[in-house]
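S1.2 Input.
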Amino acid sequence: MTTALPQRKPQVDTPRPAPMPTFRDEWLGSAAPPHEPAADMGTLADRIRHLMDLAAGQQLTLPLGGRYFDLVVTASGPIAYPVVRLMDDIQKGPDDPPDACGPVIEDPQRGWLIWLVPPGTSDEWAPHQFATCLGSPHRLALPPMDQTEPPGPYWLRRMRSDRLVPPGPLRQYLDQFRPGPAPHEAVLGSMLSTIS
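S1.3 Output.
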């Protein structure tokens, strides 16, 4: 004789809620609770949006100093161009194109070369007769990445991810070639965010 086992009736009334995750304080450390984004994620998102705008040919204005760069601004023209070519030679690696200098923007309307140098350079740059160096709190409007000739400000030497212009050799060549006159710091600082 076979005996049937008792069967349980399935409950169809209410679905079971998913368990809520629990986090120990030591797992979170100093991070924000999971429902709030970390404080620096907004800044990162802004930076990504800015870089996408720049790649799409739109103007981008960046703060100087910090993680980006400072600026050395000199006069442009026939006396300054040999400095650019010498900086090409200094920065050229075995696989680099001939225009290997770090990023340089030419603003033909104002007669300026804007050299992008490592952040913190403005803190160490002594006054110079043929150049002005600026960092934080100033801002710079970058021309679109594909703007490599006039009209308007353009990349005389393109922006690369692996280099800025070294300020030591730049300063030596400026002493040697003397492109001038250098723009005054007060005037320069007020115009940089509007050059593009």
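S1.4 Remarks. Residues 22 and 64 are 43 Å apart (CA to CA).
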